């Protein structure tokens, strides 16, 4: 039998690390680690943990953006970013859901619901990597809700009802239903828009909008985060309704009969 030859590869080239984007990626991991301490520690502080997760989302957006701007994207960086997202927005957020929503009772149900969220998040990330490597979809489209948005959706529920944790069976059921719905959105085929491809002439407007959003998140986090998360969650529906309206208007204008020559002239 012929021995299969193993192709020699340059290990340093495969594991090449772009310093600046990787700094933001590791800072994302550090913030997620800090959030986990506030979730499972002896002195639980869910609101502080959510603020750490919000900062993690910002860091997660910066590392990819910086890698594209500096043209230092690499497969190693993509894999590292996915692993960090799996921990921060997957594991840490699932623990937040479990510790906040099911500690007053129904802990067994909470273990199942939190694991469903964690599983959906990891499936979402694995599918994203496969699609990206195969270039199956445009770079400005996400298939399924991104896991950072799913994490912020869970955080929004905790922020809105922070002082009234689910106590009754109905409250636990509604919270479980919300977490499962978020999980299903992550592994769905719903297309979400991204802001990766922004026309250069609109970059200043986009930068101003981003700065305004970050300012609102810092000053009014408990209100801004749920509003932004809800708006992005239903954005595919809004885009579809808007496109249908545009098509109907265009169709109506094309079907409108042209006026005959001289028909609009008034008789003397």
Q: Can you offer a commentary on this structure?
A:
The chain is mainly alpha-helical and 268 residues long. It has one domain (18-239): Up-down Bundle (Four Helix Bundle (Hemerythrin (Met), subunit A)), CATH 1.20.120.1760. It has 10 helices and 2 strands. A two-stranded antiparallel sheet has the order 1-2. Helix 3 runs antiparallel to helix 4.
Strand content: under 5%
SSE series: HHHHHEHHEHHH
Distance between the termini: 102 Å
Q: Can you name the CATH architecture?
A: Up-down Bundle
SSE layout:
Elements: H1 11-14, H2 19-40, H3 46-69, H4 75-101, H5 107-134, E1 141-143, H6 147-160, H7 169-186, E2 191-193, H8 203-219, H9 221-233, H10 235-255
Antiparallel strand pairs: 1-2
Short description:
With 268 residues, the chain is mainly alpha-helical. The protein has helices at 11-14, 19-40, 46-69, 75-101, 107-134, 147-160, 169-186, 203-219, 221-233, 235-255, and strands spanning 141-143, 191-193. It has a single domain (18-239), classed as CDP-alcohol phosphotransferase transmembrane (TM) domain (Four Helix Bundle (Hemerythrin (Met), subunit A), Up-down Bundle).
């Amino acid at each position: 039998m012929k021995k299969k030859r193993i192709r020699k590869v340059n290990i340093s080239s495969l594991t090449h690390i772009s310093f600046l984007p990787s700094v933001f990626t590791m800072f994302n991991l550090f913030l997620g680690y800090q959030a986990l301490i506030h979730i499972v520690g002896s002195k639980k502080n869910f609101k502080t943990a959510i603020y750490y997760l919000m900062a993690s989302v910002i860091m997660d957006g910066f590392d990819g953006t910086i890698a594209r701007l500096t043209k230092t994207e690499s497969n190693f960086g993509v894999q590292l970013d996915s692993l960090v997202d799996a921990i921060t927005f997957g594991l840490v957020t699932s623990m937040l859901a479990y510790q906040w929503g099911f500690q007053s009772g129904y802990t067994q149900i909470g273990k199942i619901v939190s694991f469903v969220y964690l599983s959906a998040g990891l499936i979402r990330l694995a599918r994203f990597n496969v699609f990206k490597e195969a270039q199956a979809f445009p770079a400005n489209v996400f298939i399924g809700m991104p896991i950072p948005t799913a994490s912020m959706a869970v955080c929004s529920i905790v922020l809105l009802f922070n002082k009234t944790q689910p106590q009754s069976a109905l409250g636990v059921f509604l919270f479980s239903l919300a977490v499962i719905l978020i999980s299903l959105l992550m592994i769905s085929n719903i297309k979400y828009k991204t802001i990766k491809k922004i026309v250069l002439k609109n970059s200043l407007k986009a930068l101003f909008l981003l700065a305004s959003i970050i300012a609102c998140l810092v000053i009014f986090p408990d209100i801004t985060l749920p509003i932004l998360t809800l708006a992005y969650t239903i954005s595919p529906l809004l885009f579809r309704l808007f496109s249908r309206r545009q098509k109907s208007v265009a169709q109506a204008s094309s079907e409108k009969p042209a006026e005959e020559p001289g028909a609009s002239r008034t008789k003397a």
